[in-house]
Amino acid sequence: MSQGNSCVSIGRAQARACTVREALDRVGGKWSIGILVAAAKGPVRFTELERQVEGISRRMLTLTLRNLERDGLLHRRVHPTVPPKVEYTATPMALELYESLVALTDWAERHRGAISEARAAYDREHAGQ
Amino acid sequence: MSQGNSCVSIGRAQARACTVREALDRVGGKWSIGILVAAAKGPVRFTELERQVEGISRRMLTLTLRNLERDGLLHRRVHPTVPPKVEYTATPMALELYESLVALTDWAERHRGAISEARAAYDREHAGQ
DNA sequence: CCGGATCCTAAGGGATACTG
DNA sequence: CAGTATCCCTTAGGATCCGG
Fold first, then answer.
1. Contact criterion met (CB below 8 Å) for A31 and A56
2. Distance (Å) of CA A64 to CA A10, A75, B73, B74
3. Does residue A22 surpass a pLDDT of 70?
4. CA B5 to CA A64: how far, in whole Å?
5. From CA B129, how far away is CA B127, in angstroms rounded?
6. Which domains does chain B have, with CATH numbers?
7. Which has more confidence, A42 or A73?
8. What GO molecular-function term can you cite, just one (chains A, B) (predicted)?
9. Which of B31, B42, B70, B108 has the highest Cβ tally under 10 A?
10. Residues 92-121, chain A: which have Cβ under 7 A from strand D?
11. Are A65 and A85 in contact (CB under 8 A)?
């Protein structure tokens, strides 16, 4: 639905925010990251993904794979054998994306404690209503 | 719903993915980034945000502000005047987060073209069904 | 000016059963 | 093995109106 270049005609720092969302939209789903991580270390088969990405349903696995493939983040290779064999591989673009997420990982680890404290404090504060 | 430390008991590289989602969950909403960007440059009032963050509804502005405040990313200061004046400011933690997103912004800009080409190619390929 | 309360729609996502 | 197809529920989010 949201195209890539809807970041024009804003004119402010909000254009920056829009560019960020551009990236987040491709990785924002519940399962995208888990799949990308699993596919980053080489070709992975459908069933392998189903096991490695804990809790994912067959349906969501298929859907997320299709989206990632469509965005050029995964490459899908079908081996015309019986039984069928399909391998998914992260593209260079996807690997770059994953490395860009390292900064985010660091941030999350550094502030994990502060965040839950902030939440606890907020909830305490707003307990009586 | 999702607590902060649900990343244990996985044991694989998937724990990494889980940490990434930890960060994304706090910024994954449709409006969070836009609000943070606007609040990054100093105190902003409610109505200012309503104008700067284009397209946001009153309801979502309030909700997102509350969530960001609860996570310790925004500070809310109420001036007991008439009419009321409320200022929102990004906390240092939020500023760090924003800087961590720069890598993501760069990625989005670098691959913007490649992504839309990949989409076009995929859609062309899968046109006949 | 800064919201809260209510109602409603749409999108995300889970469970399950079926198929080439 | 690698998916489709269906059904259903839950959540995000928009529209609108009311209140301190």
1. yes
2. 31, 13, 30, 32
3. yes
4. 24
5. 5
6. 12-124 (1.10.10.10)
7. A73
8. DNA binding
9. B108
10. none
11. no
Out of A5, A28, A108, the one facing B28 most closely (by C-beta) is A28
Spatial distance between the Cα atoms of B67 and A22, rounded to a whole number of angstroms: 22
B20 at the A interface (CB within 8 A)? yes
- Provide the pLDDT for residue B127: 80
Residue nearest to nucleotide D12 (CA to C1'): B29
Nucleotide nearest to B29 (CA to C1'): D12
* Chain segment B22-78, per-residue pLDDT in tens: 999 999 999 999 999 999 999 999 999 999 999 999 999 999 999 999 999 999 999
Mean pLDDT for all residues in chain A: 91
Q: How many CB pairs under 8 A join A and B?
A: 159
Distances (CA, A) of B109 to A38, B67, B86, B99, B104: 25, 29, 35, 16, 9
| Residue B79: both structure tokens together | 């001036």
Supply A16's token pair. Answer: 């920056």
